[in-house]
Write the structure tokens for this entry.
Amino acid sequence: MWMLIPLGGFALGLAVGRWWTVAAAMLLWAYIVYSDELEGNLTLWVASVLAGLLACAIGSGVALRRLHARRRLRA
């Protein structure tokens, strides 16, 4: 289940191709913080790690799409 987060983020970044989509990771962070019932600061840690992973995956998808578009323009 948790592996679908970075895969979905990469697909989102690849499909949309805009850098502002990285901000979508904050929605996941907010959802985890407000809905999870872990003890202490563990909720913030889990939310931050997963949101950071999602942001990196979305950024990778956006970067790949832009690189592909740049190469297409040169050819």
Notes: The two ends are 40 Å apart (CA to CA). Residues 42-74 form the longest helix (33 residues).
